[in-house]
Amino acid sequence: MHVVVPFAATDPKTRLSGVLTPEERSAIARAMLEDVASAIAATGYESTILSTAPLSGDLDTDPDGPISVTVDDRPLSIAVNAVLESRLAGDGDGDPVAVVMADLALATPIALEGLFSTPGDVVLVPGRGGGTNAFVARHPDFRVDYHGASYLDHRRIAGEVGADVETVDSYRLSTDVDEPEDLVEVLLHGTGRVPTLLYDLGFSVDEREGRVRASRREE
Amino acid sequence: MHVVVPFAATDPKTRLSGVLTPEERSAIARAMLEDVASAIAATGYESTILSTAPLSGDLDTDPDGPISVTVDDRPLSIAVNAVLESRLAGDGDGDPVAVVMADLALATPIALEGLFSTPGDVVLVPGRGGGTNAFVARHPDFRVDYHGASYLDHRRIAGEVGADVETVDSYRLSTDVDEPEDLVEVLLHGTGRVPTLLYDLGFSVDEREGRVRASRREE
Predict the structure, then answer these.
(1) Cross-chain CB nearest to A129 (options B174, B179, B211)
(2) Looking at residue A218, what is its pLDDT?
(3) pLDDT above 60 (res B175)
(4) Which of A 133-172 lie inside 8 A of B, CB atoms?
(5) Given an 8 Å threshold on Cβ–Cβ distance, is A211 in contact with B169?
(6) Closest CA–CA distance from residue A97 to any residue of chain B (Å)
(7) In a 10 Å sphere around its CB, with 0-12 CB exposed, 13-18 middle and 19+ buried, how is residue B67 labelled?
(8) Is B166 or A65 the better-scoring residue by pLDDT?
């Protein structure tokens, strides 16, 4: 299995613009990438960061893993499909491919092992709101379409190519960080660089009525 | 193990008031209760519905399970703590108690089995926003406090009584239905009465940009 981590290097996490400056959004996105890459490295699998632009500086992961960086500035679905085509069919050796989004700030080695070890032609991890946070593809003809409710599209695409579909039930992997309301999940359950960075930026758990939120102190 | 399902029978799910009438909210809450009770019954464990008022009509579950209804109109934490005290200490036989919220509309027998079979003095399932969607208690002194970020409080309380804490990583059990944005999760991943009821009420998956939502057609 080879693990691919797509990463939007330029102006990332725009839906967090209301609570974070562009520099802070870049720092959070980079910290999430390093947390995800570290969790993958701890599983022992080789991974590739599929980045829209060259990364600034060396990637800091713990443990060091076999991690390479490939730059592809095409849209997400096209870039991921090129990897799937190359590795699953074409010149590939047929080794399975896993694709794990770079903003799964709660990912742990155990949760990722649960995904990687689940059998199935296509193994999906849904994200909140119909997204696809991660998957494993073992079928040569599976391709992605991340537009809209990609979870439903990926089930449909798998069906069209005759691939059986499994899903993985993991809160850690189903939680991606896109919107301000997601930040509190990182404060509550994160284990890596990102909760520390959020605390450094002034965020804390805000226990008002209903679901708690991350709030930021006034400077 | 005995499973307790707290249920707010009167004016439930007020945070859904913007999209559902009081009668519809009651119907959704009842359907969720029956889905949760059915999933528990399928695990083979005995359960008690801990309701704030008598249920109207017979509870419809599949399979029929050993399910009783107890009415306790006190606040949630007090009512649950009375059960914990009675069953874990006091006159109880020391058999573990599981508490599963009635609004876990994505709960399946497999997900619940995963919770029930996880060892630990206290086994917590966090909900989004710092809640506690379900837990198993095997320690005689563990008590609940559902106010605020109960997940953090429950970790603290467990520590204070010397109980070791485990958590269960399940998207299905970490998803409760409180707010309109939660409804799309039921449409996408639900397997019981509730998605059918939502479709009947005019809801469907709305694939606009970003996370998809449940939208309701105009009458």
Answers:
(1) B211
(2) 63
(3) yes
(4) 148-149, 151-152, 169-172
(5) no
(6) 23
(7) middle
(8) B166
B 12-51 residues inside an 8 A Cβ radius of A = 15
Q: At residue B1, does pLDDT exceed 60?
A: yes
Contact A213 B149 (CB under 8 A): no
Sign of CA dihedral B187, B172, A130, A19: positive
**B145 within 8 A of B153, measured Cβ to Cβ:** yes
Q: Do A84 and A97 form a contact (C-beta atoms < 8 A)?
A: yes
Contacts of A86 (CB under 8 A, 6+ apart): A92
Q: A130–B207: do the CB atoms touch at under 8 Å? A: yes
Q: Which residue has the tokens 């890596």?
A: A192
pLDDT of residue A219: 56
Q: Name the average pLDDT for chain B.
A: 94
| Shortest Cα–Cα distance, A206 to chain B (Å) | 9
Q: Which two tokens stand for residue B174?
A: 């970490």
Is the CB of B130 less than 8 angstroms away from the CB of A184?
A: yes
Contact B178 A211 (CB under 8 A): yes
Separation of CA A123 from chain center: 15
Quick one: pLDDT band at residue B140, thresholds 50, 70, 90? very high
Q: What is the predicted pLDDT for the residue at B54?
A: 97
Contact B136, B116 (CB under 8 A): yes
**pLDDT category, B136, cuts 50, 70, 90?**
very high
Are the beta carbons of A129 and B174 separated by less than 8 Å? no
Residue B219 pLDDT > 60: no
Instruction: Kindly give the pairing relationship between strand A165-167 and strand A122-126.
Output: parallel
Q: How confident is the model at residue A217 (pLDDT cuts 50, 70, 90)?
A: confident
CA distance B106 to B126: 14
Tell me the three-class secondary structure of B49-79, residue by residue. Answer: EEECCCCCCCCCCCCCCCEEEEECCCCHHHH
* N- to C-terminal Cα separation, chain B: 46
ipTM tops 0.90: yes
Amino acid at A196: T
H helix and E strand count, chain A:
7, 9
Best of B128, B156, B172 to disrupt the A interface (most A CBs within 10 Å) is B128
* Nearest chain A alpha carbon to B108: A169
Q: Please report how the helices B22-43 and B109-116 are oriented relative to each other, as an axis angle in degrees rounded to 10.
A: 60
